[in-house]
Amino acid sequence: MRHILIIDRDSTTLNDISRLVTALNFEPVVLFNLNSQNNVIRDEVAVIFVDIETKMVNPKEVINYFNSPAKIKNNHRIPIVFMYSNSDSKLVKEGRVLPHDAELKKPFTLEKLFAILEKQLDLESIEYEQFTNEYRLKEMKEYAKTMEDWLEKFGSILEN
């Protein structure tokens, strides 16, 4: 499972992003600062959401930490989404000049969040458990039908 990093302290934002990414078969990982990223493996990170208005982290440090040229392998940049509430904020204006892939103004709808995730991730390639279970059930039913046919043939051989 791949991780979606969320750097924010707003409980509504954390809950909304966490619920949606979990439904999409990703694991949400909440960071409150870059020091708490010790257990995060860069190659497992699919997208980073960072609130650029909090002073929890410096957006430039997040970009440098995860997407510095030394860390990018095979042109794999981690998409970074800037979140904010006040588009006129000095922090937002400063953040907009930094390299990022999308912006999400809070409060946001799940549809807007999904649109960003859909653009940044290959959602078609994700294996969802319910579809896997449906496929397995179909396979088991086909196997059961084959076994039933075989048992009928075997039974008719024994009767003769």
Provide structural commentary.
This protein is α/β, with parallel strands linked by helices and 160 residues long. The chain has five helices and five strands. The protein has two domains: 124 residues, Response regulator (Rossmann fold), CATH 3.40.50.2300; 34 residues. Helix content is 44%, strand content 16%. The mean pLDDT is 84.
The CATH architecture of the largest domain comes to 3-Layer(aba) Sandwich
Distance between the termini: 55 Å
Helix content: 40-55%
Mean pLDDT: 84
For the sheet with most strands, the description reads:
5 strands, parallel
Rg value:
23 Å
Low-confidence sequence ranges:
none
Estimated structural class: alpha/beta
The CATH class of the largest domain, by name, is Alpha Beta
According to DSSP, the number of beta strands is: 5
